[in-house]
Amino acid sequence: MEFSEVVRKRRMVRHFTSDPIPANVITRIFDLVQRAPSAGFTQGQSFVVVTRPELKREIARFCTEEEYAETFQHPFISEAPVLAIPCTSESAYHQRYQEADKIDEEGQEIEWPVPFWFMDIGCSVMILLQAVVNEGLAAAFVGIPGKENNAGLKQLLNIPADCTPVGVIPIGHAATDIPSPSLKRGRKSQVEFLHFEKW
Question: Backbone dihedral region of 86: left (phi > 0), alpha (psi from -120 to 50 degrees) or beta?
């Protein structure tokens, strides 16, 4: 599939068939995801991949699936054959930027202008969403609302204390779904989105 087609076909799908995804397809997808950029080549990104039905149901509970189902009419998190949970480690970046080739002239870690650990996991998620489309599959992204749900998910999946799960990505074969009502807002004009030389 041409890259431009992958980008244009990508959308958040909120209903999946029960058709399984072969293990080699998941391997191909994550081979690409692991090529995402990371500051200082820290590689602070990690993923948990879940296929067990009972575990998917527990994860969906932490994502408040029942509230999504009221709008989209399907339990699309737990029904997806695969769930991917992207995680990032802030401490990995601090450790990396205290190494000899990254410290400043005073021997200190840089002052972080933005939290690059979130930038990097965002890049990983985008590659994942595009790699899924390239395989003829579909995906969505859902958040984990509230500190209690986040802590519960970490405990359920044995995610290390220094890693933060940033969401849950259901992956599967698309079924007919209800598009997000937010799409009615329309896409911003290019004049609003793109600024040359200065704003």
Answer: beta
Q: Which amino acid is at 106?
A: E
Distance CA 25, CA 137 (A): 10
Domain count, the chain: 1
Q: Which domain holds residue 86?
A: 17-177
Q: Where are the beta strands (DSSP E) in 28-167?
A: 45-50, 82-88, 138-139, 164-165
**Closest among 177, 179, 180, 181 to 79, alpha carbons compared:** 177
**Residue 185 domain-assigned (yes or no):** no
Whether the pLDDT of residue 71 is over 90: the answer is no
145 lies in some domain: yes
Structure tokens at 63: 């994502």
Strands annotated E in 51-166 = 82-88, 138-139, 164-165
Residue 69 covered by a domain: yes
pLDDT tens-digit map of 21-58: 999 999 999 999 999 999 999 999 999 999 999 999 99
Nearest to 43 by CA among 150, 141, 120: 120
In three-state secondary structure terms, 92 is helix
User: What's the burial of 110, exposed, middle or buried (CB within 10 Å: 0-12/13-18/19+)?
Assistant: middle
